[in-house]
Each structure stands twice: as structure tokens, then as C-alpha cells.
Design a protein that fits this description.
The complex is a heterodimer. By secondary structure, chain A is mostly helical. Chain A has one helix and no strands. A six-stranded antiparallel β-sheet of chain B has the order 3-2-1-6-5-4, covered by helices on one side. The chains are: A mainly alpha, B alpha+beta. The A-B interface holds A 3-8, 10-12, 14-15 and B 22, 24, 42, 59-60, 62, 109, 111, 289-290, 292, 296, 299-300, 303-304, 307.
Chain lengths: 18, 309
């Protein structure tokens, strides 16, 4: 996930939180 | 299609395609007389085809409620009246207007303008070239009497008159009775199979995409219906095309260019699964998501499709 751009990281964090 | 058609689709995309930009920040919406302010929204800003206008879309927000508040009923035709997308940066607001409506975005982050990755352009153009080998599959005008058109079509098919049958399919689009009604997809499948038999690959693929995207007219929509309808994506393999590149090409989006038949994310994910090619496609999506030379919008999409897969 460190290799992803900022918005993709943000989306992924929220997706995992759901 | 021949090599020249792929080459020309690629060259056109290379000239006209512009990366879709991602903007994160606060949105102030003055639409239809209302005033709404939402913090921490992610929007995409896409240059429209052969126009000075932009399509704006709220991609996601902090919560589902914030997303519902921020989302735009009307996405296309926005004119940028303050600011410049080429010189966009954090802290410098943009204002878009359309008629009496106004949207102000105060960005905390803007994705870089960047160059377009050749491999992504190539996948995009592969799909565009294949779909463009036949004209759009439906006429603007549609049959006024559905039953009559259906009966004439059945008669043409029974008589073995394929050209006549095609001319009826072009205008006959039965309306679904409810979200679960699979009749519109069945008729599109019969039309697609006729095109396939006649060697019309573009026609077949345009209809195949409508079936994969479940894009038919209905009197009611629901996610139950969407879930119930098969994508039949396995049918792509029998055409002999490069199925992985075709499906990956559907993931890629650019501004400034258009293509027949775009799919929504969930149906695209399901199509990838039902094509039987999920493993190699996931590997390429993972590489794209981490590829710093690909534009950030497509890296976000690759991440989303991969997570949903």
C-alpha cells in the first residue's frame, strides 16, 4: 500500500474500514 | 480489424486524450438554489470531448452521508470560470459554472497532470478500435410499437433474412418490466449472436458490453436485478481477441476522447471474474496500481477494481 498514490491509499483505507 | 485501424485509434488517443484529474478538498455547491458545503471530498475532473467543458464526479467522501450530500445530479457541461486545470495546485480554488449553478472546490491536494502511459493508451485504443469496426448498434429512433417490431423481427428471422432482421434489431429495444426482467438482455444476446454469425465483430462486442454492463432500459432499477443478470463475459474468449488486454482496456479512462459502451465498476469486476481471466488480470492491475508513470486516476481505478476482485 506504500507504493500507492495518496488518494488510492485513502480510498483503500476507507474501503477496508467498511 | 487490420493493423492500420489499431494504429489510427492509438494515434487519435495519443493526440486527444488527457488524464482525468483527482482533486481532494472542500466542495461548496450552489445548485438549484441550494447551498451545500462538504469537507474532504474526492472529485474527478474530466475534460469533455471536443468541448471546453468538464465532467465533474464525486468519487468518494468521508462517509456515505457526506457522499450523498456532495454528489452531483448533473455531471457534465461544467465551465471552469476561475482557475486552470493545467496549473492546478493545492490551496488555489477552482470555480465551475453551468447556467445558474456554481461549484467551488478548495483543493488540499490535486493529482499531477503527468504524461499518459503508452501501455495504458494502447489498452484503451485496443478496445476503441475493436468497438469502432461497426457503427453504433442502435438507431436514435426506436420502434413505436414494440409488439409489432418484435413480430416483424421474428418473421425476418424465420425467413432467414439476416439483413432485414438486423434492421429491426437496430430499432427494437424492449423495455424491461422490472429490475429482474432478463428479456432486454436476451434480445441483445440474440442480436449479438446474429452479428457474430455475420462476422460483425464490432457489433457483437458493443452488445456484449451492454450485456456485461447490464445497460438496458427498464421501468425499475435495483441492485438485486444487477446482481441477478449474468455478464456472459466468457463469450469474449471465443472471438479470438486478447481478452486480458480488452478487459484491462475497459478499466482505463481518459478525458478528451470517447468510446462506445463504458461499464460501471461492479459489473466490470464481475465480468473479469466470469471471463475466467481474473488471476492474470489482477496481476497486471497490481502492477498498474503501483506504477508511478501511470496517471493517478487510473491508478485509483486499478486499486478499486483489484480490491473488489
Amino acid at each position: 500500500e506504500e507504493e500507492l498514490p495518496p488518494i488510492a491509499r485513502l480510498w483503500l483505507a476507507r474501503h477496508h474500514a467498511k | 480489424p487490420g493493423m492500420a485501424q489499431f494504429q489510427s485509434a492509438y494515434e487519435q488517443a495519443d493526440r486527444q486524450a488527457k488524464p482525468i484529474r483527482l482533486v481532494q478538498g472542500r466542495i461548496v455547491k450552489e445548485v438549484d438554489g441550494g447551498h451545500v458545503e462538504v469537507d474532504d471530498v474526492v472529485l474527478s475532473v474530466e475534460r469533455e470531448v471536443e468541448a471546453e467543458t468538464y465532467a465533474l464526479r464525486v468519487e468518494f467522501a468521508e462517509t456515505d452521508d457526506a457522499y450523498s450530500e456532495a454528489r452531483l445530479g448533473s455531471r457534465s457541461g461544467w465551465m471552469l470560470v476561475t482557475g486552470s486545470m493545467e496549473r492546478a495546485e493545492a490551496g488555489v480554488p477552482f470555480v465551475f459554472e453551468k447556467g445558474a449553478s456554481r461549484i467551488r472546490i478548495e483543493p488540499a491536494y490535486v493529482s499531477p497532470a503527468g504524461r499518459l502511459l503508452m501501455e495504458a493508451l494502447d489498452a484503451w485504443a485496443y478496445v476503441a478500435a475493436l468497438l469502432a469496426t461497426d457503427p453504433p448498434v442502435y438507431d436514435d429512433e426506436r420502434a413505436t410499437d414494440e409488439e409489432e417490431a418484435g413480430a416483424k423481427l421474428a418473421a425476418a428471422r424465420a425467413a432467414g433474412d439476416k439483413e432485414k432482421a438486423l434492421s429491426y434489431y437496430r430499432i427494437w429495444r424492449p423495455m424491461g418490466r422490472c429490475s429482474m426482467d432478463s428479456r432486454p438482455a436476451q434480445v441483445a444476446r440474440e442480436y449479438a449472436d446474429l452479428c457474430y454469425d455475420m462476422g460483425k465483430l464490432g457489433c457483437f462486442l458493443q452488445l456484449q458490453l451492454r450485456i456485461m454492463g447490464d445497460q438496458f432500459d427498464r421501468v425499475a432499477y435495483s441492485s438485486y436485478g444487477e446482481a441477478a443478470h449474468a455478464t456472459e463475459a466468457e463469450r469474449l474468449t471465443e472471438t479470438g481477441l486478447d481478452v486480458d488486454t480488452f478487459l484491462l482496456g475497459l478499466v482505463i479512462r481518459f478525458g478528451g476522447v470517447s468510446r462506445e459502451g463504458e461499464l460501471g465498476g461492479y459489473r466490470l469486476v464481475r465480468s473479469i471474474k466470469e471471463s475466467g481471466r481474473a488471476a492474470p488480470i489482477a496481476a497486471r492491475l497490481a502492477a498498474w496500481a503501483e506504477d508511478a508513470t501511470l496517471d493517478e486516476y487510473n491508478r485509483l481505478t486499478a486499486t478499486q477494481i483489484l480490491a473488489l476482485l
